[in-house]
């Protein structure tokens, strides 16, 4: 299925092709503070449609995940990184997608605070 997503102000818009039936809820310091519900997709399944200004990139800890943030509204719609095999992945913030019923998703909890 093809989903449309954006930051709050609309300066960043993207689409993601994925079958989303579950979400990852992580308790690490950034995910818990931002309230992320994530779905990981191959990097080539996320297409940036609009970027009015360069996205701000934030990394921490091992610096493997590049959190992308709109410099206008501060929303973080996705992050970019690699999986353990070295393949490009996108961590999509499901709260930024249109037309997805978050309450219908199976939520998988991840203990990122201790991993």
Explain what this protein looks like in three dimensions.
- This protein has 115 residues and is mainly β.
- The protein has a single domain (2-114), classed as Metal Binding Protein, Guanine Nucleotide Exchange Factor, Chain A (Beta Complex), CATH 2.170.150.70.
- It has one helix at 29-34, and strands spanning 2-6, 12-17, 22-26, 38-42, 46-51, 56-58, 66-69, 78-82, 88-93, 106-110.
- Strands 4-9-8-7-6 form a five-stranded antiparallel β-sheet, with no helix packed on it. A three-stranded antiparallel β-sheet has the order 1-2-5, with no helix packed on it.
- The longest helix has 6 residues, at 29-34.
Give the gist of this structure.
The chain has a single domain, classed as Metal Binding Protein, Guanine Nucleotide Exchange Factor, Chain A. Helices cover 5% and strands 43% of the residues.
- The name CATH uses for the topology is Metal Binding Protein, Guanine Nucleotide Exchange Factor, Chain A
Order of SSEs, N→C? EEEHEEEEEEE
The first-to-last residue Cα distance is 32 Å
Judging by the overall fold, what is the CATH architecture?
Answer: Beta Complex
Number of domains: 1
Biggest sheet statistics? 5 strands, antiparallel
Based on CA atoms alone, the radius of gyration comes out at 13 Å
Helix proportion range: under 10%
Shape: globular
Spatial order of strands in the largest sheet: 4-9-8-7-6
Quote the beta fraction: 35-45%
Uncertain spans, ≥5 residues at pLDDT below 50?
Answer: none
